[in-house]
């Protein structure tokens, strides 16, 4: 079972995300989280999915797409670091990613399918990582981070946004 990363394995920026991942079976949490995200977003009409809780905030479609984009990027980082690649991996500008897309024009069903495909890819990657590779460190966005910390960031980031959706949008 994947163990929670120690504080020395990641930048303090990620503490909040990692703290949202419960103790226990990490893979079971990812699976249950996927079901929860699908349950929340699949109940929305196309009109509801365009809602924003405040001006200049992302629509619900954009939030789901952001969760997906971030998991895609973090999974790539996880792969590179777990495989021993010590190349400094660049950061990304989440607002630029949203500004340069038309997610509000994409059907919610398509956005959900994209999220599920990315989550399935993440889940398929996990068993290919050896025990010793989980504690390997690399650099992402100028900060040292371990492979297992990235795995926890993936789950915690999605949970963070799911919590915001439930508290501020619904």
Class by SSE composition? mainly alpha
Shape: globular
Order of helices and strands: HHHHHEEH
Q: What would you report as the Rg, rounded to the nearest angstrom? A: 16 Å
| CATH architect. name | Up-down Bundle
- Per DSSP E runs of 2 or more residues, the count of β-strands stands at 2
CATH H-tier superfamily = dinb family like domain
Largest sheet: 2 strands, antiparallel
Span between termini? 34 Å
Low-confidence parts: none
Strand content: under 5%
Helix content: 40-55%
Q: What is the CATH top level name? A: Mainly Alpha
Mean pLDDT: 97
List the domain count as a whole number: 1
Per DSSP, the total helix count is: 6
Looking at the structure, the CATH topology is: Four Helix Bundle (Hemerythrin (Met), subunit A)
Major sheet: order of its strands?
1-2
Protein name: DinB-like domain-containing protein
InterPro entries: DinB-like (IPR024775), DinB/YfiT-like (IPR034660)
Domain DinB-like: 34-164
Quick rundown:
By secondary structure, the protein is mainly alpha-helical. Helices cover 54% and strands 5% of the residues.
């Amino acid at each position: 079972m994947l163990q929670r990363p120690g504080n020395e394995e990641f930048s303090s920026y990620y503490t909040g995300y990692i703290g949202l991942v419960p103790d226990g079976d990490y893979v079971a949490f990812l699976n249950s989280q996927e079901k929860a995200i699908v349950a929340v977003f699949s109940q929305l009409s196309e009109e509801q999915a365009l809602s924003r809780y405040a001006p200049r905030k992302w629509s619900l479609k954009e939030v789901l797409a952001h969760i997906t984009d971030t998991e895609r990027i973090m999974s790539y980082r996880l792969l590179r670091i777990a495989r021993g690649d010590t190349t400094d991996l660049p950061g990304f500008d989440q607002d630029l990613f949203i500004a340069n897309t038309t997610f509000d024009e994409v059907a919610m069903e398509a956005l959900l399918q994209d999220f599920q495909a990315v989550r399935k890819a993440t889940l398929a990657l996990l068993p290919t990582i050896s025990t010793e590779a989980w504690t390997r460190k690399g650099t992402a966005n100028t900060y040292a981070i371990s492979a297992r910390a990235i795995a926890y960031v993936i789950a915690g980031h999605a949970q963070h946004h799911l919590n915001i959706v439930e508290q501020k949008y619904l």
